[in-house]
Batch of 3 targets.
Target 1
Amino acid sequence: MARTDMSKMGAADLKARLAELLADRVRLSAKVQAGTDQKAAELRRAVRKGIARVHTLLRERERTQG
């Protein structure tokens, strides 16, 4: 889960990043459920913020190209 400057990404790259973030969220949710990782809940919140950011950027791309 590396930090990336998503504001410069194109729509295809954003969709790929979204898929990565969704996979991260699923993996972290499993750890939270199992109680195996203390930082998993905090990381999961950060991933949710990333997902929201990607959705926002995708909507902006669609508006400017549509």
Target 2
Amino acid sequence: MNLYSTSSIAKSIAQEIESILYGVGLLFRVFYRSKQNKSVADKISRNPGKYSKGKKLIQDVIGIRIALYFPDDVDLVVTLLKSHFNNIEIVKDAPDVFSFGPSRLNMVFSIPTEYDTSLSNYYNTDCIDNTFEVQVRTILSEGWHEVEHDLRYKCKNDWESFDNLSRMLNGVLASLETSEWTMVKIFESLAWQHYKLKQWESMLRNKFRLNFQGSHLSEELINLLNTKQELAKQLFRSNRQFVLLKIHAQTHNLPITMDNICHLTNFFEIFSEELMELMPDALHRLLLGNEAP
């Protein structure tokens, strides 16, 4: 007897992924689905002989899509997911400098053991692998892929002999990807402008681009940064991805506040004694408890 439905498994895995990404404060959206029996049967019939036990199995009956606000978070999310789930395969298209088209970043993971189930039990076939697929995209490219999937991928005959129009559609994605990286540079420039004006909250918000819990920096940290501008410069120049990976490695969930980001960045990377003295004792004890002996 199956204790879970495939849709409930998909929902639970999606919620687990959300918890991982929320834990480091990323800005994102997560979508999930599970294939129905008819959809699986149609996929097998469209590709006769492709799927069979002992050969290639269908790995995406449970699918998760992660849409990130910023393209520089993609590699970070890949690392986070690989540290949490058993990764079977990653399919990542290498960029082609001479042509442009949609690129894939699909990851296949084993179904977590706590579900204690075989997905093939839910379908009338033994061609199902006990895995789920995660597609990682950005918000802007997600919208393009939705349109492309429904109106080109599913309607290939409509596009035959119209390669010029297909290339133009790909060009829309190219402009979106350029716009995404432009947005990152805009926020970096905005953070720099606020650094020069000693507007520390705004600097941190646009430097780290996180879902902060609360938007204020404590007066004691503001006063410290006002008098120690070299420390403020070190915060501005800190390695965002390195700090977020360190936060993820902690065994305790740490609130993503502006004060905590300052203290955590200092603890893992900057090592300022003045800032260390202002770290709350409870946070210091938690961090020391996670350090290797």
Target 3
Amino acid sequence: MTGRPPHDRRFVTGAVAMTNQRAGKNEMPMMVKASHDLEQIVISSGLLDDAPFWWIGLMYRKGLKNDPAPEIRRINKQYGELPVAFEIDVRLLYRQEDETIYRVYCASALWALIHVGRKYELPTAVLESRLAELGGWPPQVIHANPTET
């Protein structure tokens, strides 16, 4: 097992803007809510029980496309982190209702976690089931104003 982080979290998310698109007022709260809810699923599913890392740090790169696969970096041995990042199409979040934003963040994170599970031969059945409930990846979003996408 690797080192331990200076916190007790097992799944943490963050985001970086790759465009000039402004975030909606509830976008970050929905990302945080999705992160907290998914952390409970990660723990209860046993995803990290036999993992060679302690926690997963997921970075959303808010750009203009959906990456076909997440970038999974080397394990940080000092803190036990597995850094994961991928680009998500910011237009999926533009002018959406809170529930849609929450669903997009959940679906994209589950998709990335499933890739991690497959790479490290960890259990992903619960994650795959939850992703199917959300409609899979990439999420199908009806834009509020199709001419502005």
